[in-house]
Amino acid sequence: MTIDRRSLLSGILGSAVALGFSRVALAASEVERVDDLISRMTIEEKAGQMTCLADAFRPFNPPNPDAGIQDVKRLAQEIRKGRVGCLFNGIGVAGARKAQEMAVNDSRLGIPLIFAGDVIHGLKTIFPVPLGEASCFDPAFVQRTARAMAVEATAAGLHLTFAPMADVARDQRWGRVVEGAGEDVVLTSLLSAARVRGFQTGDLRRNDSLVACPKHFAAYGAVAAGLEYGSVDISDETLRETHLPPFGASFAAGALTTMAAFSEINGVPATADRSLLTDILRGEMGFRGFVFSDYTADEELVAHGFAEDDRDAARLAVLAGVDMSMQSGLYIRYLPELVKSGAVPMATIDVAVRRILYVKAAMGLFDNPWRSLDEKVEATQIATPAHRALAREAAARSVVLLQNDGVLPIDPDRGRKIALIGPFGEDRDNVYGPWAFYGDPGKGVDIASGLRAAMPDSSLLTVVRGSDIRTGIPGGIDAAVKAAGAADVVLLAVGESQDMTGEAQSRTTIEIPAAQQALVDAVAAAGKPIVVLLRHGRALALHDGVANANAVLATWFLGSESGHAIADVVLGKVDPSGKLPVSFPWESGQEPFFYDRKSTGRPVLDNGSTEYKARYATTDNSARYPFGHGLSYTQFALDQLKVADPALRWDGTIEISARLTNKGSRKGAEVVQLYIRDRVASRTRPIRELKRMERVTLDPGRSRTVRFTLSRTDLEFVGADNQRLAEPGLFDVWVGQSSTGGLHTQITLYAAV
Ligand code: BGC
Fold first, then answer.
1. pLDDT in tens, 498-507
2. Verdict on whether the full-model pTM lies above 0.90
3. Is 294 among the catalytic positions?
4. What is the distance in A from the centroid of ligand 1 to the CA of 307?
5. Which atom of ligand 1 is nearest to the CA of 64?
6. Of ligand 1's atoms, which has the minimum distance to the CA of residue 61?
7. What spacing in Å lies between the alpha carbon of 663 and ligand 1's midpoint?
8. Where in the sequence is the domain holding 479, given as residue range(s)?
9. What's the number of domains the chain is made of?
10. Can you list the positions of beta strands (E) in 546-701?
């Protein structure tokens, strides 16, 4: 294999330059420095650069099994010998500085370490879980919160975050739905790219630039039946159409690393899949950064039944294109011998090391190994009031009003007695959500505290737990029913705990745990107005007292400012404007469920006939709350749908506009959404596909015309031979307020003449 240094370099620069990130460029002297280093490195040192280990100096080992090197003396020795390239999941400048000194001052070649970590939705200031924040449908806003997270992470001595999760989650039983932007490819692409831009800025050398690692490549969100770490059996077309684009968008936004998925695709574990990690990732997608394995995923090739033993696993992973092995230590253990025996060419190793060192150079680490290691910044830039205020805004924007008969908002000045019932009312252990390991326990605001702070007379609030999360408590329901009877309005804070979502938390049913459902049903029977505040990391199937409540709010895990933000919305200080990034089905058994599904030959039509149609015997295959749904306290109306000319020429564009009016009496924000359907194609197309969205804020009585421009590329799909193509013909277009309904028109794409 020949190594073309120039093409590698232009690859790195290419993706950067395409977005105008010219400052990522490596100077010729840096390229020479990397070349010089590689020419002087032993195979051990090369394998060391390709090794990423958990930072045992500052033990912090999120959900994973103990592995790697836990003995700190040994870890220090390994760094001094140049046998480690990256440490992960330790934070704090002092510790990082010590480790960097070992690498820079004590190792033979002095190559700096990368400090990586899982900053998924905040370091100390915890923002809403990514799925919750996706509800804002607003890339510019998501970019702002990512920036704030990056400022805190880099202040704490991190260079790189294992985020964003760019996996499109097609099955709500999968626990990691919570880490991404939901079920839709376009929304996930836009928000992943925004997060990359927010983390990195346009200049990777800045002290506060946090290198992004969009993960998990690829199709991890398509694991069969939502089973964590499970298998993916998928067509080439669906892989390319649904699961790869968010990665492409993230790379185009400047991401220079990615992480191979734990799962297998079509019988080949991603970690050993050369066609995925090299042919598709680099060949088709033009990625020029470096690839991490996931945590011990190379070692797991043995359990997959794909590698004979650990040595074979290391060989398969490196040949497939995994450049940096996370936590197993397999590369440092086996690469030297694998190269010596000829099982792995030295050229393969050199390519991987070069990719890693180029990224280190692009981050400015060679010039300044002490970047992002400044105690003063650490003391002043973490958990700032400004970040806290942004977290409150983000949390309020993430709330989705699913239904409301007018009970909300509750006017705080009307002196109404409120009963707050349920296991999440005063709970502080479940406000952050999963993957917020650096957040200080107990520093998040619970709902009761948020309400008390906002109510002019907090003695009007009664709080009753009523039930634990998974089990009832003696006398709990009686106390709750009594409190409800004495109140004017009841808030029920029910749902999932944070350890019911996230990695390794697949569920077979996506319902409120039975003990809490019993609580809600009993309280509902008291006949008082009920507002349900859902706590959750996925879409849920709601039933009985929950589904029939006077109002239901999706409040996810909102982070540090949870209680304040919920009070802001419930008491009407903030108008809810979130939209669902995942469909809420009627029943768990509808999963995998997503709005952009196929028609089938026997769709249920509007004429009511359901016999011998594509539906379950017990329920329509529609959603209780569709993707894109979300109400407001004011009323928005769309009209005047206009298409200047419904004929779209092959190389032309088409403008579609509609007028949005705030018909209510409050200021509010609406997300106007444009969907298409390709009526006839050589591969069947979904019944709807989101193509554009715009968040519009309007004062009461005001209108704004929203304009969307489409071109042929928006009508493309992946057809035969994995080629993206658009086919001439008729397309439906809807401009609406969710993935159902809306104003309808049609356009026609004409072939080139
Ligand atoms: C997860 C990754 C994460 C890594 C490091 C793994 O278990 O799948 O998403 O980045 O651990 O903590």
1. 999 999 999 9
2. yes
3. yes
4. 22
5. 7
6. 12
7. 47
8. 129-151+170-202+384-633
9. 3
10. 551-554, 584-585, 623-625, 636-643, 647-648, 653-662, 668-678, 689-698
